[in-house]
Amino acid sequence: MAGSPPKTAGILALQGDFEAHRKAVERAGGRALEVRTLADLEQCDGLIIPGGESTTMLKLLDQEGLTEPLRRFSEHKPVYGSCAGAILLAREVTNPAQASLGLMDIAVERNAYGRQIDSRIAHIPMPEGDDLEAVFIRAPIIRRMGAGSTVLAEYNGDPVWVEQGRTMVTTFHPELTGDLRVHRRFLDKL
Ligand code: GLN
User: Fold this and answer.
1) What's the whole-model pTM score?
2) Is 10 helix (H, G, I), strand (E, B) or coil?
3) Beta-carbon neighbour count of residue 114 at 10 Å?
4) Which residues are catalytic?
5) Which CATH number fits domain 8-189: 3.90.1210.10, 2.40.50.100, 3.40.50.880, 1.10.10.60?
6) Which helix (H) or strand (E) segment is 86 a member of?
7) Could you give the CA distance from residue 169 to residue 110 in angstroms, rounded to a whole number?
8) Cα 110 to middle of ligand 1, angstroms
9) Ligand 1 atom having least distance to the Cα of 137
């Protein structure tokens, strides 16, 4: 009996640390495809939007004609955004205000930990076992979440890993650690 064909996790590869996400997907046992064109996107069962610079990524999405296709993609396929990716997915963006894809009902404040402490590594206690190692780099803070949100991890009282149905965000960078829990959860959605 033939098994179901393996699912493909797309990684938006226009800018940012997409390569680290590709490696994390592969370490978690998934099949990864770097997405630069509409033809690439059409081969994917889900998409990861990596960290990087959200303003630049928005421009490149427009230039490549991927903004609307990505919105349509998210209507029936899982999308996960990490850091700048979370900013792109949020319905509302402040500090400064910025356009976004608006695929998830959350409000985020960019660079919310301030300029002095640009990045940090936190160890977040998790109910099911080992602490989650979370790398924050000029991270946003999620200031509001719509109905139907599940908080999967919090740091300093703020949600840092949130799911809304098919859509998921982290304000930290799981691809920079050996901790594959976030990528595994995303692969399970495909
Ligand atoms: N501060 C960046 C932005 O606003 C995000 C940083 C990151 O992805 N590590 O786009």
Assistant:
1) 0.96
2) strand
3) 8
4) 83, 173, 175
5) 3.40.50.880
6) helix 84-89
7) 14
8) 7
9) 9
Q: Is the CB of 138 under 6 A from ligand 1?
A: yes
pLDDT, position 117: 67
- pLDDT recorded at residue 134: 96
pLDDT tens for 2-45 read 567 789 999 999 999 999 999 999 999 999 999 999 999 999 99
Q: Mean pLDDT over residues 117-141, rounded?
A: 92
Residues forming a β-bridge with 92? 107
One DSSP character per residue, 118-181 reads: -EEEEEEEETTEEEEEEEEES--EEEEE-TT-EEEEEETTEEEEEEETTEEEESS-GGGSS--H
Q: For ligand 1, is residue 24 a contact (CB within 6 Å)?
A: no
